[in-house]
């Protein structure tokens, strides 16, 4: 994350990400947010313990943060699942990112596989997320993109949207040394 901290914009490709850990999701999301105050990203209700685990952004991260005001686009597909959906949904709900691509898989509930007999096993959910902003989850509905398009076209779409957004920002601020970048962006957008 420190390597990309000085870039002007970011595209995160989760089109083939099937999931992971809620804590890793919060860790990466923390780089995209201000450190203070921490942000409640998600609550997870654990049926077995009858308790809610709150997932917060971190007030401290190793290295540099990306910056809370820089544009971030997330690419999704119908294969994007579980924690990759949590990451997308949580940041979309607080309006930190724009999601480009397809509706995701809708696999929100955590659980585990239990063997029934020698030939069958069953996945039994034991926890479900509750987003603090929307008060629901993406289970079965999936994460709906802000800009819907075929996942194979989502990178090019997000890249052009990001360049347009940067061009507008640079035009407004007219930072010294950015003239060549503005010309380059205009040329790419026109292609």
Automatic annotation (TrEMBL):
GO BP terms in the entry: proteolysis
Source taxon at top rank: Bacteria
GO molecular function: serine-type peptidase activity
Pfam families cross-referenced by the UniProt entry: Peptidase_S41 (PF03572)
Boundaries of every Tail specific protease domain copy: 1-150
InterPro entries linked: ClpP/crotonase-like_dom_sf, Tail-specific_protease
Gene3D superfamilies: 2-enoyl-CoA Hydratase, Chain A, domain 1
Name of protein: Tail specific protease domain-containing protein
